[in-house]
Amino acid sequence: MAVLKINENHVLSRIEPEIYGHFSEHLGRCVYEGLYVGEDSDIPNVNGMRTDVVEALRELKVPVLRWPGGCFADEYHWKDGIGPKENRKKMINTHWGGVTEDNSFGTHEYFELCRQIGCKTYVNGNVGSGTVREMSEWVEYMTFPGVSPMADLRARNGHPEPWRVDYFGVGNENWGCGGNMTPEYYGNLYRRYQTYVRHYDKTAKLKKIACGANVDDADWTEGVLRTCFKFPQPEEAHGFMDGLSLHYYVHPGGWMHKGPALDFDEKVFYTTLKKALYMDDLIRQHGKVMDKYDPEKKIGMVVDEWGAWYDVEPGTNPGFLYQQNTVRDALIAAVTLNIFNKHSDRVKMACLAQMVNVLQSVILTEGPRMLRTPTYHVMHMYRRHQGADLVESKLTGVKAVGVGEAPVPQISESVSVDGRGVVTVTLANLSMTEAETVRVELSGGPYGTVEESRIVASGDVHDHNTFDDPDKVRERDFNVAGDDRGFTVELPAASVAELRIGR
Ligand code: AHR
User: Fold this and answer.
1) Annotated catalytic residue 173
2) Residue range 246-257, pLDDT digits in tens
3) 8 belongs to the catalytic site
4) For a tag site, which of 68, 295, 414, 495 has the least CB within 10 Å?
5) Can you spell out the DSSP letters for 104-162?
6) CATH number listed for the domain at residues 16-248+279-318+345-365
């Protein structure tokens, strides 16, 4: 039996809601078909946005949505996506499948989507192939409230009011598809580009995100911070940026042989989870470099691309990155979100890649049909951590499970307390075959009651949802036994659970 001791009165950090963010790129069927079908579609929509998908996303409490990429952002020229749709440029999406991009989803459509979902906005600008002027004008177009060339253009295109840009990314993967730059070169460009990303909205400052490292490239983190951080200015004392990104994907068999989403053996299952747990090392590693420059943790680590990346589903376009999602993915989501919660003193935002039909999606669509993936259900259970306080918690008696070179701790957890004093405990059992008992004890009494307990579990880790069986893996109610000293949770093999304990 494992024992989880919680000190619910010892607050460690606030879990920013943005840690539960999402990412949508002009890639495969994410934006087109997945989110946007156009006003004339037979699929029910509001202003072109799929009603069924928007509804499911609202239930998820999506806090923020990053757009338009990804590598697509490095080649995106925003003026191609405004104005009458019939006049918008039709072009090739060179990076993703060589398909026609008709630009029918652009700036106005993105803000409409975020309005419908009810989430914050995170627009990613183009440093790789765009100009300083282009970026500067985009920010003016989106946010300038008065009379100006770009604000006038926005009004002529039907939106006199400015929008709110909560976050603005100055470049994407500039070490790779965003221009193959060195950290120093990018750092200097960052300083220059961000100068013209103006704060036109005086009610809320737009937050600037610099391009951070790929996986464990601490030299990139160091080089960018060294270049961007050493000229503090009184009003922007943390070196021109509010966040520094990090990208990390789990490829079970490595980048060249990722492996299928549905067909994996025990060894690959545990290797995948071990790779997911590596997120913890990465945050520590990059966090150490960030601490050197920013010991007060004013700059947030923004893990704006994370998730599992497998081979595409057989028969689908290799450039579309469409993959299925099993109980294994539910566990990846659970351990990663527990890790983010535990590091919420430094991690201020994270975006799962990607929202619909691409990589580790929460939703899959096929024509008019849609389904929620196992990852959706985990993110739904975990939504209660959004905006709550992470509190101290410690596990003992945890066994190692796994085969070969990939033993992993059987249990993963994190605990928060919300504004009403309700304690949310999230637990995952990473064993493919063994159930485990977890004894949960809070430090103060009386312990109150479990107001709600939910679980995502299924008979087989390969289980997944299909359009014919869309609810095979889903959240269900779950019984937890309480006594005067705490609670006893019987976690089935390969399961994720949530407990809400009232006072
Ligand atoms: O999410 C798919 C791609 O992965 C993104 O476009 C890019 O930023 C990353 O390499």
Assistant:
1) yes
2) 999 999 999 999
3) no
4) 295
5) -S-HHHHHHHHHHHT-EEEEEE--SS--HHHHHHHHHHHH--SS-HHHHHHHHTT--SP
6) 3.20.20.80
